[in-house]
Amino acid sequence: MAGTHLDAERLARLLEVGRGLVAELHLEAVLDRLLETARELTGARYAALGVLDAERVELARFITRGVDDDTHRAIGDLPRGRGILGALINEPKPLRLDDVSTDPRSYGFPVNHPPMHTFLGVPVIIRGEAWGNLYLTEKAGGDPFDEADEAAVTVLADWAAIAIENARLYTSLEKRSADLERAVRGFEATSAIATALGTETSLDRVLELVVKRARALVEARSVVVLLREGDELVLAAAAGQVGRGEERRIPVAGSTTGEVLESERPRRIDDVESQLRIPAERLGVTDASVALLVPLVYRGRPLGVLAAFDRLSGDESFTNDDEQVMRAFAASAATAVATARTVEEDRLRHSLQAAESERRRWARELHDETLQALGGLNVLLKSAGRSSDPAVLREAIADASEHLAREIENLRAIITELRPAALDELGLAPALTTLVKRVETASGLAIDAAIDLDRRLADEQETVAYRVVQEALSNIVKHAHATNASVAVGTEDGELHITVADDGRGFDPASPTGGFGLVGMRERIDLAGGRLTVERADPGTRVTVALPVQARP
Q1: How high is the pLDDT of residue 260?
Q2: Confidence at residue 136, expressed as pLDDT on a 0 to 100 scale
Q3: How far is CA 98 from CA 1, 47, 90, 119, 511, in A?
Q4: Residue 430: partners with Cβ closer than 8 Å, 6 or more residues away
Q5: CA 161 to CA 31: how far, in whole Å?
Q6: Is the pLDDT of residue 54 over 70?
Q7: What is the mean pLDDT of the chain?
Q8: For residues 504 and 511, what is the distance between their CA atoms, to the nearest angstrom?
Q9: For domain 8-172, is the CATH number 3.30.460.10?
Q10: What whole-number distance in Å separates Cα of residue 197 and Cα of residue 228?
Q11: CATH architecture entry for 185-343
Q12: 278 touches 287 (CB < 8 A)
């Protein structure tokens, strides 16, 4: 074949096809173009490409052109590489036959196979090893394939080998890129949850972050988090196409989700209707086809289940890679959920302790002052009642009147501390002004007040601001041993700013405190979405607060 010359037209076509094949980066497109071009160059009616298996002993794929679908179905199973086809596998070099049926190596054709006589086979060699074989049969006009056909197809196979290798490298690169992107998404999602551990204490916000990140991570249509409450799993958060409405609960027993929880093992579901055992509609998810369920486990304790439904890209199922990345993500998510729950439990415990402390305080105030004073008044009036002397009665009435006046003032002070009327009727600025004057009078502390508010704020925000200033001044009076203090309240850049400072002995803000003071302030401000800073001043202590301004409705 060394002396075979290709005509100019065929050579030009080979060069054109070669450039096109090498430029194509998708393997299936390369194979399709290879078969069509081989038929065109040789005039063959039928073309096929046999792709070898990993051991190169038989065909793993067999792609054909020229045979219609009905004939394919009638023939049945595709060849695996026996007979003439096997000859090229055993000895990968070009093979031409004038009549394949007369060759002793031929096994013959299956029933319903179209008749084939002339044959040309050329191996596709990639990096010195056979990758597959190109088969052509039934040249137009019944003529046998000649040396020019063989030479053209051999060149075409060489071009194809380069194109196939390029396409395989490109596919590998795409897969690696996709894997890297998935790994980056997994890292970002896990990092976001890890960040939440240090910065976010609200369980609702943590759960919202979990479902949104999980949905993006596996490109799911819907994601829900179910948390265990006794013998039930309760829908705690959802992202994507999930119906909202009434509280959604499913039993742990008898549900696939419950099995995932108790076994602490993830599960991929390819048919939601038959495998989930409880309709997905009970979770607000409609028309679900596939699902991925992953347990949320913290220190060996199952907290709940993270469930993803359907891929955004279509009907494809979740993969093993999806499962692995969700398992890693769920581990961080479970830690975040457990931490947020602990914070909420601590906050509730502190709130209960604070409420109980306040109850004890008011009970002590009423018992030590008001009730004792009223008891003394009762003794006074009973003693006077036994006397018939008008002068004694007049003196007793006068004393009783003074006692009642004092106790009315005491009760008014207690009521004002509980909820000052000025706060509801006049607003934050007048209420704080009154508070400052009352603290000055009662404690002897000199307080410089700068309260600059030109409008009313939302009731809840005025209450938070008032209580913060009240608690800060109370701490100064009780603990600071200060002679001077200052209170500054104003709005700037959409925030309410509060600063309370003193010239007392100061304290370490990082040290544990036995009282409710700072804990109460932090809880109030956290719930209002604000920021609290407590720092040493020179001298004394400075408390600063920033709250987002909420307009009065």
Answers
A1: 95
A2: 93
A3: 17, 16, 21, 6, 97
A4: 422
A5: 10
A6: yes
A7: 81
A8: 17
A9: no
A10: 21
A11: 2-Layer Sandwich (3.30)
A12: no
What is the tens place of the pLDDT at every residue in 119-158? 999 999 888 888 889 999 999 888 999 898 899 888 888 8
Rg (CA), the chain: 43
Both tokens of residue 89? 């596998």
Pairwise CA distance, residues 238 & 204, whole Å:
11
**CB-CB contact of 15 with 3 (8 Å):** no
**Using an 8 Å Cβ cutoff, are 49 and 161 in contact?**
no
The residue written with tokens 């792709």 in the block is 51
Q: How far apart are CA 19 and CA 159, in angstroms?
A: 8
Q: pLDDT of 500-536, one tens digit each? A: 999 988 765 555 444 446 766 777 787 778 888 888 8
Identify the residue whose tokens are 């609200």: 202
For residue 442, count CB atoms less than 10 angstroms from its CB and return exposed for 0-12, middle for 13-18, buried for 19 or more.
exposed
Q: At what angle do helices 320-365 and 203-218 cross, to 10 degrees?
A: 170
**Domain regions of the chain by residue span:** 8-172, 185-343, 428-548
The span from the CA of 109 to the CA of 112, in Å, is 8
* Measured distance CA(530)–CA(543) in Å, rounded: 13
Return the closest-CA partner of residue 306 out of 197, 214, 174: 214
Instruction: Identify the three-state secondary structure at position 404.
Output: helix
Domains 185-343 and 428-548 share a fold: no
Q: Measured between alpha carbons, how far is residue 212 from residues 81, 225, 291, 319, 499 in Å?
A: 51, 10, 16, 19, 38
The model's pLDDT over 387-410, given as tens digits with 9 standing for 90+, comes to 777 777 777 777 777 777 776 666
> Rounded CA gap, 90 and 58, in Å?
10
CATH architecture type of domain 428-548 = 2-Layer Sandwich (3.30)
Separation between Cα atoms, residue 431 and residue 428, nearest integer Å: 5
Cα 412–chain centre separation: 52
